[in-house]
Amino acid sequence: MSRGRTQASASPRRISSPARDAWRRFARNKLSFVGGAIVLVILLAALLAPHIAPSSPVAISLREKYRRPSSEHWLGTDELGRDVLSRLIYGARVAVGVAFSAVLLAAVVGSIAGLIVSYSGGWIDEIAMRFLDIVLAFPAFLLAIVLVAFLGPNTMNIVLVIAVTRLPRYARLIRGQVISLKETVYVEAARAIGAGELRIALRHILPGCVGALAVYVSLTLGESILAIAGLSFLGIGIQPPTPDWGVMLTRGRDYLLLAPWVALAPGAAIFATVLGFNLLGDGLRDAFDPRGQ
Asked: Which of 20, 120, 150, 214 is the most buried (most CB within 10 A)?
């Protein structure tokens, strides 16, 4: 009997926790690790661009234009002799910086708006929801084109436009989450012991929205990077000579037969980045969804 107790005590049962359960659900989706690895590479390239780029992204050398990929220029050069790899690395900094700024702004403002609307209720909630329905009726990219044409194509305006077109989605997301969480047992218990509505919102409801918010942020980042590249491709986004994937793509399409690497490199970078964020978002969705246990 004592031996059995010793063996039982030597191998204690692993205690479950929300964080451990979330990690276990995340680890089930192997593709989420692929997405996380892609996102990590892109983030490192953006942060370390001045240290890992072979040359300046704006240095022009007409003698070296249209050079094929080689040991000197791993991804070749463009129509002005600029190193494509260097522009690709610095382009990651522009894409990630603009997308993160826009999504962060949309998430913060949208979450606050959704929280206020869900707690207000009545005619305020009704008017706000109908306004959001009208905004969401327009395709986000088409609305972004209209706003950029009105405000002008510069980096700050691009951040603002991307944030404005994503903000209604965050407001609706948080509103739905708050409405469902307001009726949970632990919120009713906090209200029963005299906790104020502000304390309940900040301490008990908002933490319950973190999972859905994290998943949506990941998915929106990939979508926003694609939108930024699309605006630049149309000539109303990030303006030259700033290295941007959309700018590189639109300039490279004129030389597809002569120097296909000029367009293929940024196209592949956009595809890989959006895919990485989407795969990571799928993994986060599985991790924060207790029904996937």
From this structure: 214
Neighbours of 217 (CB within 10 A): 20
Which residue from 240, 207, 237 is spatially nearest to 79, judged by alpha carbons? 240
Amino acid making up residue 148: V
Model confidence pLDDT, tens digit, residues 238-273: 888 889 999 999 988 888 888 899 999 999 999 999
Whole-angstrom distance, CA of residue 130 vs CA of residue 246: 34
**Residue 220 to residue 128: CA distance in whole angstroms:** 22
Domains of the chain: 21-52+74-292 (1.10.3720.10)
DSSP state, 243?
-
Name the pTM for this structure. Answer: 0.84
**Contacts for 202 with CB less than 8 Å, ≥ 6 apart:** none
Which helix (H) or strand (E) covers residue 92, if one does? helix 84-120
- Cα 69 to Cα 78, 207, 255, 257, 265, distances in angstroms: 11, 49, 15, 15, 11
- Closest by CA to 46, choosing from 100, 84, 98, 92, is 92
